[in-house]
Amino acid sequence: MIESFATSLSLFTQLDGIAFTTLFLGWFLIGFLIDRNGKRRSTHALISDFRSRWMIEMVGRENRVADIQILSSLRQGTAFFMSASMIGIGGTLALLGSADTLEQVATEVSPELSAPQLVWEIKLIVVAMILVSAFLKFVWSHRLFGYCAVVLGSVPNDKNHPDALGFAAKAAKLNTYAARSFNRGLRAVYFAMAALTWLLGSIPLIVAVTVTLAVLYRREFHSLSRAALLAD
After folding, report:
1. What is the value of pTM for the model shown?
2. Rounded Cα gap, residues 41 and 55, in angstroms
3. CA distance 185 to 79
4. What's the pLDDT band for 120 if we cut at 50, 70, 90?
5. Where are the alpha helices (DSSP H) in the chain?
6. Mapped to the 3 state alphabet, what secondary structure does 169-185 carry?
7. Domain extents in the chain
8. Residues ≥6 apart with Cβ < 8 Å to 221
């Protein structure tokens, strides 16, 4: 098995290794920057404060139909991306089953893209694994939003009840954890799309990862939506 693994690695160039490392290192680093609560907080971190505020305000409302509807819409969003991830996984596996045809087409388009069939299969497996990661994040997010709805339903209607604020805080934490998992799932989808460019070569993958990182960083730390959250 070790010899087989070494043989597989020998099919890739040093630039492939750099591109592969860039993909996963970039994915990890941008996730760390977004999720942490540093001096410069991301849009995701800022909106968590509003989730907590939402649950506190909900305690004083007798009619909580609107709160349930908001949670339902959030769960629908996760369900949509769960389905989209499954479709993406299925499409990638379908390509994996036709790797020989993909190799032939790529060679006809550009001789520079010519590579052993095993190389194409490994590249597609990387994409499929990232999409599987996204799917699992969306599934967990969907469940957490469901847990949040249950806890929300247990919050007493009387804001003076000794358990009201404590239960609301629990609902807020579950809501935040669900959103974090959803956000991580979205990032996995972004990097799965970037990983697809590896089929075109190492340089396209490095460029795609760089663009993905720039877009994510701008949206989380320099977007108009972040400025709106910080405005007085």
Report:
1. 0.89
2. 21
3. 12
4. confident
5. 2-10, 14-35, 43-59, 65-97, 99-109, 117-154, 164-196, 202-221, 224-230
6. HHHHHHHHHHHHHHHHH
7. 16-31+44-230
8. 33, 40, 42, 43
